[in-house]
Description:
- The structure holds 2 protein chains of 2 kinds.
- Chain A has helices spanning 2-7, 45-50, 76-89, 102-113, 144-150, 159-165, 171-188, 198-201, 224-232, 248-251, 253-264; strands spanning 9-15, 18-26, 30-34, 55-59, 95-100, 118-124, 210-215, 237-241.
- By secondary structure, chain A is of the alpha/beta class.
- Chain A has one domain: Alpha/Beta hydrolase fold, catalytic domain (Rossmann fold).
- In chain A, strands 1-2-4-3-5-6-7-8 form an 8-stranded mixed sheet, sandwiched between helices.
- The relative contact order of chain A is 0.16.
- Chain B is an alpha/beta fold.
- Chain B folds into 2 domains: 2-94 and 190-274 and 360-458, Luciferase-like domain (TIM Barrel, Alpha-Beta Barrel), CATH 3.20.20.30; 282-342, no CATH class.
- Chain B is built from 20 helices and 12 strands.
- Chain B has an 8-stranded parallel barrel with strand order 1-2-3-5-8-9-10-12, surrounded by 7 helices. Chain B has a two-stranded antiparallel ribbon with strand order 6-7.
- In chain B, α9 links the parallel β9 and β10 (245-253).
- The longest helix of chain B has 26 residues, at 402-427.
- Mean pLDDT of chain B is 87; it is low at 271-277, 306-334 and 336-342.
- The chains are: A alpha/beta, B alpha/beta.
- The A-B interface holds A 140-143, 145-146, 149-150, 152, 154-156, 161-162, 165-175, 178-179, 181-186, 189-190, 219 and B 135, 138, 140-143, 282-284, 286-289, 293, 296-297, 299-301, 303-304, 306, 314, 317-324, 327-329, 331-332, 335-336, 340.
Amino acid sequence: xxxxxxxxxxxxxxxxxxxxxxxxxxxxxxxxxxxxxxxxxxxxxxxxxxxxxxxxxxxxxxxxxxxxxxxxxxxxxxxxxxxxxxxxxxxxxxxxxxxxxxxxxxxxxxxxxxxxxxxxxxxxxxxxxxxxxxxxxxxxxxxxxxxxxxxxxxxxxxxxxxxxxxxxxxxxxxxxxxxxxxxxxxxxxxxxxxxxxxxxxxxxxxxxxxxxxxxxxxxxxxxxxxxxxxxxxxxxxxxxxxxxxxxxxxxxxxxxxxxxxxxxxx
Amino acid sequence: xxxxxxxxxxxxxxxxxxxxxxxxxxxxxxxxxxxxxxxxxxxxxxxxxxxxxxxxxxxxxxxxxxxxxxxxxxxxxxxxxxxxxxxxxxxxxxxxxxxxxxxxxxxxxxxxxxxxxxxxxxxxxxxxxxxxxxxxxxxxxxxxxxxxxxxxxxxxxxxxxxxxxxxxxxxxxxxxxxxxxxxxxxxxxxxxxxxxxxxxxxxxxxxxxxxxxxxxxxxxxxxxxxxxxxxxxxxxxxxxxxxxxxxxxxxxxxxxxxxxxxxxxxxxxxxxxxxxxxxxxxxxxxxxxxxxxxxxxxxxxxxxxxxxxxxxxxxxxxxxxxxxxxxxxxxxxxxxxxxxxxxxxxxxxxxxxxxxxxxxxxxxxxxxxxxxxxxxxxxxxxxxxxxxxxxxxxxxxxxxxxxxxxxxxxxxxxxxxxxxxxxxxxxxxxxxxxxxxxxxxxxxxxxxxxxxxxxxxxx
Lengths: 266, 459
């Protein structure tokens, strides 16, 4: 653990007047990680594994707790534009990126606006496109604990889920979730968790090497959306995991790392 | 003192079991019969006319959405009718839910028309809307406070600033503002703000010199809030008086104590103020971003303490593996099967529990009930403590028959209302129609005087 504590650090980056907090670790070509609507859960098995050969950058979205809210942001487009600026100003482009759920939507929106800022893109159960069948779970009509519970298929078989969320929920944790959920509402309340024009806008990203990862039993964003994403981004490839919910990086950690490493390469 | 009449106008035919199972919001509307609704809406309008005839100074309306507790889904419709069929009473709207209305310019027009039709009897008021109303109208709860402030400023401007002009705000945009509907009261109708004791709102009222109306809140914290208003007013350079404050009091009267109590206990299923466990499911009452950080902190404590959420279907979900007997896995099974949504509550036991709470509610003066004679000293106590310039009789919530409702109004009007008015005079309680709120000078010492006091409770 001592080595890890040295390896991972936190930096503050000024982007458009916002002091963006970025968690940074590992070594090698950078990978930009865009976290989901519950906030960054911390360093997990998959990040530790990937960090052995890549530098991992996890910016904490403005308004999700640590990084202060930027009041001008009203939509996912605004947040995507903010990160495009971060990528450009830090000289990261073309960067590899992995986006989870709402973070996947942010990444997709960035690709729709300027695909050349990415080298390779991994979208993990991204929101952003309305599912062809089924609905995105309305996380605003459940409390945070239900939202967390709905995110994996089999918590009993997922020790890392227990490590993250087991035991009584402390008030501090609840408040953090509420902060993340409030900012998610500000950005994605309506149309709920998607942009109706995104499938068309993604046409420009055809040819961008893209891996779409999904759990077949996803109870937050239905797996049917994977095919919609594949069609929207010409040349994209889909990988699905059975007996897996919305968070394959936790629930199928080893398989997830294998797929991502194979796709991203060195 | 300004004395008004208020009822939530419940849809009285909803099965009580459904109320217990669902609470304030989310009862499926298959239980709503428009024929019965038609009858009720007309009865409630007639009641307002009766309230005017028997001597009330004002009739108060409110608005809620998707709930059996209050049939005023669009209060301005009722207000417009009352503007025409009443002659003397103030039409007090507490309040229009600014953040959920969506089109504040149209709201300004509607209220101007009501003010003109009533020949200047409108009192406008604003609320943020209950948490559930953000869902019912799809208003983003994360911007609730921003919508409120911006819509308020826009409505007041639309009433007072000669058009045409263009408006480009953060959340609202109008290319041509030039309404040909303006309030007859100048510069605009009085604005009063009702609430359940949010300090943020109270301070905002003091800054705007708007009277604050506490909605049947507990007396002790209400006095505390009066003092917060007092201090914020002093910062603005004025001394508060009774004209800055209003209070809504639940009062039920009947020919006998027993009969009054029998009616009043059904109020436990009526309007607000009976605890969130019954008032509504938490996911609907606390949407993300709707609450201030302070309020969220309170909810967080409640939610993460398994002991405080006894009886809540959500208790299990907040506990993880190995604690409190419920594991994440079990909760997840509940989630998948929808069990947690259905709330596995024992309807009979809950009903019993609700009725058993009633004596407590009566002791704390949250509900005053009895014969006209026996309720007057209790009302005096409330007036002595809070010294409000606006006093609302809140009554007739719950499944109470039309006949019993009318009797209640008549009995109050015959004895209780005149006595209340006398007590108000004796205590020097002036209304915002007697003294302009914010017009009193601070004492030379600069230290503001209090309006409310807990001392009378001790006697």
